[in-house]
Design goal:
- The protein is mainly alpha-helical.
- Helices cover about 65% and strands about 5% of the residues.
- The chain has 8 helices and 2 strands, in the order E-E-H-H-H-H-H-H-H-H.
- The N terminus is likely disordered.
- It has one domain.
Length: about 300
Amino acid sequence: MSQGVAVKIGVPPVNRLFSVHYIGNVIPFTADFPARKDRRTMYGVHIVLFWLSFAAYGAEAGLQLGGISPKSPYRSALFGGLLIHGLFLAVRWMLSGHAPMAGLFESLTVFSFCSAFSAFLLCGTKETMTAWKILSVLVVLPQAGAALIDKRLTPLYPALDTPWFATHVGLSFLGYGLFAAGLALSWSYLRNGGDELYRAAGRSALYGFSAFSAGMVCGGIWAFYAWGSYWIWTPKEIWSVVLWVYFAALTHLKFLPVGGGWPGWGKRLEMKATAAGYFVMLATFLGVSLLLRSSHSF
């Protein structure tokens, strides 16, 4: 039987299985937690799934760095890790009752999942799979970070308990994962050349920008329902605008003729800008959330 837990102002409840994560000021509310006896086994299983996906991602990164590549994307440790990781997220969603995107642990592991997913969206051919060496490392690093963090289930702050929040965060992370693929593809192009790598890197910027833009729209709708305003000028929102303008400019500069409107602009400079966009994204995702206080702070 579920048990209501009263939350006093400024005093989160102590629970071995659940921790409470707040964004903004703490307010009193009642959270219903599932009975521990009924969920303890499933909780343990889903933690095992997390470690298995981490091991698979690590194996893929190790093989790639050792010069061993799979013959097919779907016969790889990365694909196995992606399936296990997806099952882990589904079970965690079922256990917590909300999309697993609250708090630093869930943010990092979803970022890792979306980065892995981008490999199968953009890097599925023989030429583009040369980007897997870099991309596999970009997949395992956030999962490694998540492995070091408290993994207890996190009930949502009431303002986040809406489908608009899940859609906003999910689309944003999909964009982040596509930007990770953009770094890997542009790096491979700068080292090896190839029109297919160039086109795939261009698609990563366009698709990532589109997903992130849709996420911003959903975030504005969520903010209106949560706080009565579509936009609040906090550090996170400001850096989101910086990231959006960066990739908006990048996707439009692609249409400039080589040596035309912008002297020196060409494919190699475009690929360098695509790679740099990943670090602008990291500043927006982790830099602001960890170093500055805002409604998006961890």
